[in-house]
Amino acid sequence: MHGLNQIVYVLVTIVYIFLSVEQFLMFARAIFSWIQPDEGNKLYSFLLYATEPVIVPVRALLDRFESIRNMPIDISFTVAWLLLYVVQMLLPNVRA
After folding, report:
1. 11-40 pLDDT, tens digit each
2. What is the 3-state secondary structure (H, E, C) of 31-66?
3. H helix count then E strand count, the chain
4. Nearest in space to 33 (alpha carbons), one of 21, 20, 48
5. Rounded to the nearest 5 degrees, what angle is found at the Cα of 22, between the Cα atoms of 75 and 9?
C-alpha cells in the first residue's frame, strides 16, 4: 500500500500544478483581453488555445439555463476559474 500512496501523491501533485498553471493562464487571458490585442497576436492565441478547453464545457452547461443565457455578460470564465480553484483546494484531501 505504501507504493500506492506515493503514486496518488505524485498524481495529486501533478494535477495541482496543472490547475495552478491553468489558473495563471486564465488570469493572463483576462488581463490580455482588457488591452484588446490584435487578432494575430501569438501570445493571446496561445492563451485562448490553452484556456478554451476549460471554459467551453462550463459555457455549454450554463447555456442550458435561460436566465444565465440571457445575462448581458458571459460568466462562464469566472465560473470555470472558480471550479478550478475549488478542485485545487480539495486535492490535498485525496488519499489512497
Report:
1. 999 999 999 999 999 999 999 888 877 878
2. HHHHCCCCCCCHHHHHHHHHHHHHHHHHHHHHCCCH
3. 4, 0
4. 48
5. 125
Amino acid found at 32: F
Please tell me the distance from the alpha carbon of residue 65 to that of residue 53, in angstroms, as a whole number: 20
Give the Å distances, CA to CA, from 18 to 37, 44, 54, 90. 26, 19, 12, 14
Q: Look at the pTM and tell me if it is higher than 0.90.
A: no
Please tell me the distance from the alpha carbon of residue 74 to that of residue 15, in angstroms, as a whole number.
27
The set of cell numbers assigned to 90 is 480539495
